[in-house]
Amino acid sequence: MTDFPTAPPQSWRMAPRPIANETEVLKRVTVRLLLEHERPEFDRLLTEKHYLHDWVLTGQSLRYVAELDGHWVALIAFSAASLHLKAREQWIAWSPRQRARRLPFVVNNSRFLVLPERQRYPNLASRVLGLCLRRLSGDWQERWLHPVLVVESFVDESQYRGTCYRACGFAAVGATRGFARASRDFYLPHGQPKQLYLRELRPGARKLLRQARWPAALVALEAKATGPCPFRAPGLASLLDRLGALSDARRGHGLRHRQRFVLACAAVSTLMGACGYRAFENTCKKFTQRQLRALGCQREADDGRYYPPSDTTFQRVLKGVDAAAFAALVGSWLVEQEVGALVQLAVDGKVLRGSGRRDGKPLQLLSAVTHHLRLTLDQIPIAEKSNEIPALKPLLQKVNPPPGVLITADALHCQQESARFITQELGGDYLFGLKGSQSGILDQTQRLLAQQAFSP
């Protein structure tokens, strides 16, 4: 690894010998991570020569230098992605919940400075950017313990054309609205919209970010890298209003947190992937002051700030609440937050682990789950000495999906009464599995499919 140049103020300058062939020059360009003792010079050059005149990066970050024959020719830095970008969210097509959990897998090319004159080496910028992109995910994994799937960058098209980004496979997806983040919860207009460029670092990364089920290798990384709360403050306030209908079993003075605040925190934490009281507490620590206030947190008298509940508070409150009523309220609230959540529903039965009835058999539940986000909207217990078939109708009546909904279920529900209820009473459609155990229906279906004679 090349040592820091002996003359720091001149370290960015090119070797004085003339170079006739740009292709041969670019082959000698290398990229490496910045060394800690090189930070002052790196920051000084960004402050003096980058058009933003600012070296400060946000969140997790990596800094690189590009060298030619031991001399710095470019500086490039990557940092945490922007919290909210309308064009990016439309390009990925992920939900607010998915964005909150997977935003750390998107990084921002926040600074890029080519030191020699661009006219001298017109392809230097794309060469440096390409070399960085090849190693970025691996370096990020080593430093921050998770890979990078997508890279974003902003280009001020009043000064630059974004040619090097296009050359490296970036796509221009839309202009920003011209706002800059002034504090954790507020943005101010600056009147300079920029073009947003996005690029996948691995094939299918965009599809991976929006798909419901992740590969096992990424699930654990997703849980560790979970980002901020996905819901805006107004949506959290509406959840608080609903939970106020539940009675509080706790008694006595000096209660630090109201029950509805604790329940709202538990609900949102669960949607962010938390499982367990300690996980609830750790997840809620990521909420902003505005979000905690919207969830109903009471301000501390000592310092005027809002603080999340502890794990023991979650335990006390959740043990005393009506679980069925709590689930119903959260389910109805989710429908309002996720537009189109009821367009496709899956009905599925599960055995509740660790449960037991008087006959020794475990409790079985039939649940209605959204396809895209796998959110459980409601569930009912299956009666003893029964199965899922008669429970389908009361479950869907509780959910009350809109006309046109598609209900999917396994082969057990391939019954005439279930199909009639979905199509005639709910006004929806069904997609049932069909197995060889129902030989008569299976034979008839195969014959009709071969003839293409069934009604659409």
- Main beta sheet strand tally, sense and closure: 7 strands, mixed
Q: What's the total number of strands?
A: 14
SSE class: alpha+beta
> Strand sequence of the main sheet, in spatial order?
1-2-3-4-5-9-6
The percentage of residues in β strands lies in 15-25%
Cα(first) to Cα(last) distance is 67 Å
* Oligomeric state of this protein: single chain
Instruction: Give the count of helical stretches.
Output: 17
Could you please say which CATH topology of the largest domain applies here?
Aminopeptidase
> How much helical structure, as a percent, in the residues?
25-40%
The CATH architecture of the largest domain is: 3-Layer(aba) Sandwich
Structure write-up:
The strands form three sheets. The chain has a seven-stranded mixed β-sheet, with helices on both faces. A five-stranded mixed β-sheet has the order 12-11-10-13-14. The chain has a two-stranded antiparallel ribbon with strand order 7-8. It has helices at residues 22-27, 39-49, 86-92, 96-102, 124-144, 163-167, 205-210, 216-224, 233-243, 259-271, 277-284, 289-294, 311-319, 323-337, 392-399, 416-425, 439-451, and strands at residues 29-33, 61-68, 71-80, 106-114, 150-155, 171-175, 179-181, 187-189, 195-200, 344-351, 364-370, 376-381, 406-409, 429-432. The model is unreliable at 1-19 and 182-187 (pLDDT under 50). The protein has three domains: 8-224, Aminopeptidase, CATH 3.40.630.30; 233-327; 340-352 and 360-451, 2-Layer Sandwich (Nucleotidyltransferase, domain 5). The protein has 456 residues and is α+β, with helices and mostly antiparallel strands. It contains 17 helices and 14 strands. The N and C termini lie far apart (67 Å). A hairpin with a 5-residue loop joins strand 11 and strand 12 (376-381).
